[in-house]
Design a protein that fits this description.
DUF2232 domain-containing protein; 2 domains; 15 helices; single chain; mainly alpha; DUF2232; Arp2/3 complex 21 kDa subunit ARPC3; 303 residues
Length: 303
């Protein structure tokens, strides 16, 4: 490919990212904020990793000149790294849609944690965050007391300990939305499509089954209730895996509905009932059973 085409595509990437940044100052930001990694995803998927250097430098200069604020600088780094990694994975012939989404999710999570850590080294970020957290927790307690559910709330410290792991759920829309839109654009340009499996076929790898119980053991026996690094690791791993197995329970329910030729609309009721603690626990156990056994294979064999 010629240098002119590399330059042209680099300028298009720069222009698209600059436009997305400018829309953050408008009501469109509620939508466009989720697609900041998209220009870098498209560029690396089409051109590869070497040509991404020019648009990354150009976008960095633009951010420094137009909005040299830690927030916008963090957004730029987060978007460039996440988008570039997703594009490189998409470009690989053997990769699947699942690889692209999981790669983007893991990259965005690591990138966010590093940005928060670096920011805390130069500012009182954690102090400000703690103040906001205390205020929000007080509001939550007042709301719980007003509906008579104050006794059902977990302790403030226990919730705070698992927040780093739960960030990955907040970040999930970034890889999903950028993958969905980026794939449509790339397919129109002649690139092969990468697809996610139907939700009913989604299944966690079996090692997650064993890793979950190891995390539970570590949480129970190595967690001393303080902010030690080992306890935080096991707390976040256990909380994150609990959520993943809940999703696995939903996937198995969708599989059963499909096996029995029932409408997928029943999943709306299943997800709604998941807010009942007993149903949540049941779905969680079903997810563990589906991951750690050959139950699904046996059910398929009976059909």
């Amino acid at each position: 490919m010629s240098r002119f085409s590399d330059l042209r595509d680099g300028l298009i990437t720069f222009g698209l990212f600059a436009l997305l940044i400018l829309t953050l100052l408008t009501p469109l930001s509620l939508l466009t904020c989720w697609f900041l990694p998209l220009p870098f995803l498209l560029h690396t998927a089409r051109r590869g990793g070497r040509s991404i250097l020019f648009p990354i430098i150009a976008c960095g200069i633009f951010i420094l000149l137009a909005a040299a604020h830690p927030f916008f600088i963090s957004l730029y780094i987060f978007s460039a790294v996440t988008g570039a990694v997703m594009g490189l994975i998409y470009r690989r012939t053997a990769s699947t849609g699942t690889d692209v989404v999981l790669g983007g999710l893991l990259t965005s999570w690591i990138c966010l944690l590093l940005l928060v850590t670096v920011t805390a080294l130069f500012t009182d970020f954690f102090g400000q965050l703690q103040s906001i957290w205390h205020e929000q927790w007080k509001e939550t307690q007042r709301l719980a007391e007003s509906i008579g559910a104050a006794g059902d709330l977990p302790s403030q410290n226990s919730v705070a300990r698992v927040l780093p792991g739960m960030l990955i759920l907040f970040l999930l829309p970034f890889p999903l939305l950028n993958f969905a839109l980026g794939r449509r654009i790339l397919i129109r340009q002649g690139f092969p499509g990468k697809y996610l499996p139907p939700f009913r076929d989604w299944r966690l790898p079996r090692p997650f089954f064993y890793f979950y119980f190891l995390s539970l053991l570590g949480f129970l026996f190595l967690n001393n209730g303080e902010t030690d690094s080992i306890g935080l690791v096991f707390s976040n791993a256990t909380a994150l895996l609990y959520i993943l197995f809940l999703f696995q329970g939903w996937a198995f329910t969708a599989f059963l509905l499909h096996q029995n030729k029932r409408s997928g609309k029943w999943m709306i009721l299943v997800v709604s009932l998941s807010f009942i603690p007993l149903i949540t626990l049941l779905l969680h156990l079903v997810g563990i059973l589906d991951t750690g056994t050959k139950l699904r294979k046996r059910l398929k064999g009976k059909r």
